[in-house]
Design goal:
31% strand
């Protein structure tokens, strides 16, 4: 399976591509957002600002929204997870709105949250064979508040928030699996399995 990694002007593209390749996927970094419209699998990477990323996606927004909603496997990482929702306190303007809910600034604790933290998950294929004691690497000031019961993991950082969501083949994680060692690579491998099953 070839995975299209969206290059909407943020960093971290090399590490997420290498992480996906280590998980068994072939990757293609796409600077032209039109290329996402015929991708077999889409990854929206992290790092960056909500408004700037949505600005890059806006020219293809209606078609991309329809494409993801039709069942194309999609993984949003950190900022990429936030883009999947309706709106964010960080910037005005709509998100992709393929998941219902909004993104809000963390209210408690040192901001941004930087470093390793616990993730508590429910039974889900995304976390198959990931050790329960695993920690994941976070770098964020904003978190998602789903309007529907799609949360499959939570994290406590002054407040408890959804650190992973899943709606069929649409997956979002607030942490960076590509920076989280072997547990993160296993999670990426599990996502690739979910994506292949969705084809």
């Amino acid at each position: 399976m070839e995975v299209a990694v969206a290059d909407y002007g943020v960093g971290n593209l090399f590490s997420i591509s290498k992480g996906l390749e280590a998980a068994g996927a072939k990757t293609r970094i796409v600077p032209d957002m039109v290329a996402l419209l015929d991708a077999d699998c889409i990854v929206l990477p992290g790092v960056g600002a909500f408004g700037a990323a949505m600005g890059a996606l806006r020219p293809v927004l209606p078609k991309l929204r329809a494409r993801i909603s039709s069942g194309v496997p999609t993984l949003g990482i950190c900022l990429g997870m936030q883009l999947l929702f309706d709106r964010s306190e960080e910037s005005s303007g709509a998100g992709l709105s393929v998941l219902s809910g909004e993104v809000r600034r963390l209210k408690i604790g040192r901001i941004p949250q930087m470093g390793w933290n616990n993730v508590e998950w429910v039974e889900d294929e995304l976390f198959d064979c990931v050790p329960e004691t695993s920690q994941f690497y976070f770098a964020n000031s904003y978190v998602c508040h789903p309007a529907e019961d799609i949360g499959i993991a939570t994290t406590d950082y002054g407040e408890r928030f959804a650190s992973a969501v899943r709606d069929d083949a649409i997956v979002g994680v607030q942490f960076h699996p590509e920076k989280s060692g072997s547990p993160g690579l296993k999670l990426l491998s599990n996502f690739i399995s979910i994506a292949e099953e969705a084809q």
